[in-house]
Amino acid sequence: MWSLLLATFMGMLDLFIVNVAAPAVQGDLHASFGDIQFVIAGYTLAYAMGLVTSGRLGDAYGRRRVFVIGVVVFGAASVACAAAPGAGALVAARVVQGLGAALMLPQVLALIQVMFTGTERARAIGLYGAVLPVGAIAGQIAGGSLVRLDLFGLGWRMIFVVNVPLCVLAAIGALLTVTKVDGSGRSTFDVPAVGMLSLALLLLLYPLIVGPERGWSSTATIELVASAVLFAAFGLWERRVDARGAAALLPLRLFGERGFARGLPTALFFYSGNSGLVLILSYFLQKGVHLAPLSSGLVFVPMGIASAVAALAARRLVERYGHRITVSGTGFMLVGLLLTWAAIGAAHGGAQALALLPGLVVASFGQGLIAPALIGLVLAEVVPEDSGAASGGLLTATQVANALGVAVIGSAFTVLVGDHGYRTAFGTCLFVLGALALATFVFLMLLRPRPAGAVTGQAPTRT
Q1: Is 50 exposed, middle or buried (0-12, 13-18, 19+ CB in 10 A)?
Q2: Which regions span the lipid bilayer (predicted)?
Q3: Sites in the chain below the pLDDT cut of 70
Q4: What's the CATH code of the domain at 446?
Q5: Rounded to an integer, what distance in angstroms lies between the CA atom of residue 11 and that of residue 97?
Q6: pTM of the model
Q7: Last residue of a domain, one of 157, 179, 201
């Protein structure tokens, strides 16, 4: 489990670590702002596009094998990132690094699903849920800290070097300890579906990721429409594959599972709100309150701790009090957002950040109560042979939600800042986040587990 969690930590770390170090990277490589955008977006796009495909690869060819290959690719790409002589080479290495993350991370949830049962599985998912915010916060802190420390004179390159020993530990640990790794042994692979889904995700995520910075255009609209057409074509193709009894990339039978079908829209509302909060809070602290990047990053530390503590406590609380504990997470989120809104303008400078903290910590605690339970509910009824595909689908929905939150809430925040200033923009967007929390509440109520098995994560077997 610790080998799997280490890989999860690395994947989350590298989603965020470049953001704070971006100015140093840009200056050292004499890169344009557009180049730096692609250094960040290249990883995210490759990661999101490869999740479902790599999840299915694990189902077919063995999850430990694909996990270890992903760790090796991730580590090698990290070395290439650290040694990059220019912006183009760094972007290419980041794309490969994102593909490595896509190979290893769906296997984590899939291996949890097949290696653990009952309360052990619930505990494993709780640990997984606790590592996610820790990795995200560590990325924001480590990016600024490593650049500032300039270890061995490597400067920003150290943010990639730190991955190498972690990859060695994760790969060796998996080889020594992961045992239930058999794949289905199917030699065929749904190549047309891979192409359609990858292109559809690219056309969806690319304008969402770069749109807030570059501005929306008719080209972005065309890309989004084309994405919708490709998703429809993908669904029709997978229906044909299913009808032939072949191995579909994302089996449509998954959407017949109550938890998976209702869990994906729940994840869209939940994670889009979370990513939107991180974005607007970062901008408000740095641009509105005028904190340094590292100082603003430190504000996220107690938020990450609160979320991790809640994720670890959620299993026992759900075992004792049931699904209402998960649903109560939305109540904590709403109260926290309200407290944060009430603290806007209560002080200035660093004192303003301190005034915001109580509300932010309460909201983060609520997020921690929901995240691991949501993962368990989505995957609870998925049979072991589909666990990789289901895990990839869930992680893809999470990435789409993150991109939507950044694009939609970020755009609204930018418009409001221009018209009313940072405080009003931040306060107004908090109400939008509150609406997303309410939507999460509604979908969590619809996702209420069945009386037997859903809370403990017991998956049925197919006959």
Answers
A1: buried
A2: 36-54, 66-85, 91-112, 124-142, 154-177, 189-209, 215-237, 268-285, 291-313, 325-344, 356-380, 392-413, 425-447
A3: 33-34, 180-189, 211-216, 245-246, 293, 349-350, 450-463
A4: 1.20.1250.20
A5: 9
A6: 0.80
A7: 179
